[in-house]
């Protein structure tokens, strides 16, 4: 059986994973699934999810798993992603990573590659302050980086232990990083 391809993008806030995921999604014709975007849209539309998530997003905290897991499961059942996808912003803690592993095993049709974008702290803060999204205040940025170290860094270790991690240096220009990503992506 031929496997459809999934890319999981990991990296701290400001690493450029959202930008790169979006670009590659167009170039490789693989739909981009961004939990951050899904949440921001839900917040602006004031849906039930949005109302529940808002508090966490604006504090720089992770939204509780129970708000996201069903949503991810449903997203993976939709038609548009059956021949490939790029996931960005999920998993963000080890329980989300084990959930995703189980889900993908259950679906049984994807071979996934995990890519970690590495960027120095100094650059991260510079980029986030320039971006100026509503959750990009100095205080939230500090908290998001803390949450990243506490909760998401272990996800990187999790994939590394399972020998499923490709790291890419994200300290370069947008174009250079896209080129490096294309070199390591094995489609
Ligand atoms: P960034 O990676 O730049 O911080 P994202 O757009 O990926 O931004 O996420 C924005 C916010 O949405 C996060 O700070 C968090 O509050 C929430 N969020 C996104 N994905 C998840 C997730 N998988 N689990 C919990 N919260 C999430």
Quick overview:
This protein is an alpha/beta fold and 187 residues long.
Number of helical stretches of at least 4 residues: 8
Bound molecules: adenosine-5'-diphosphate
The first-to-last residue Cα distance is 15 Å
The CATH C-level name is: Alpha Beta
Domains, number = 1
Number of E-type strands: 5
Work out the helicity level: 55-70%
Outline, from the CA principal axes? globular
CATH superfamily assignment?
A: P-loop containing nucleotide triphosphate hydrolases
SSE sequence, one letter per element: EHEHHHEHEHHEH
Give start-end ranges of low-pLDDT stretches: none
Question: Which architecture does the CATH hierarchy give at level 2?
Answer: 3-Layer(aba) Sandwich
Largest sheet: 5 strands, parallel
Strand composition percent: 15-25%
Can you walk me through this structure?
With 187 residues, the protein is α/β, with parallel strands linked by helices. It has a single domain (4-184), classed as Rossmann fold (3-Layer(aba) Sandwich). 57% of the residues lie in helices and 16% in strands. The chain has 8 helices and 5 strands. Helix 1 crosses helix 8 and helix 2 (35-44) crosses helix 3. The chain starts with a strand and ends with a helix. It binds adenosine-5'-diphosphate. Residues 13, 18, 35-36, 39, 56-57, 60-63, 68, 89-90, 92, 96, 144 line the site of adenosine-5'-diphosphate.
């Amino acid at each position: 059986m031929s496997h459809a391809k999934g890319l999981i993008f990991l990296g701290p806030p400001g690493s450029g994973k959202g930008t790169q995921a979006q670009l590659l999604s167009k170039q490789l014709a693989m739909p981009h699934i961004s939990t951050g975007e899904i949440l921001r849209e839900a917040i602006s539309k004031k849906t039930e999810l949005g109302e529940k998530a808002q508090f966490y997003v604006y504090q720089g905290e992770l939204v509780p798993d129970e708000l996201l897991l069903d949503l991810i499961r449903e997203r993976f059942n939709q038609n548009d992603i059956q021949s490939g996808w790029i996931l960005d912003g999920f998993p963000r803690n080890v329980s989300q990573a084990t959930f995703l592993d189980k889900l993908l095993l259950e679906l049984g049709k994807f071979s996934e590659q995990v890519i970690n974008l590495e960027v120095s702290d100094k650059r991260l803060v510079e980029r986030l302050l320039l971006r100026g999204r509503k959750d990009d205040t100095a205080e939230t940025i500090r908290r998001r980086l803390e949450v990243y170290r506490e909760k998401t860094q272990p996800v990187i270790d999790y994939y590394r232990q399972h020998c499923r991690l490709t790291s890419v240096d994200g300290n370069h220009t947008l174009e250079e990083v896209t080129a490096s990503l294309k070199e390591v992506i094995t489609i």
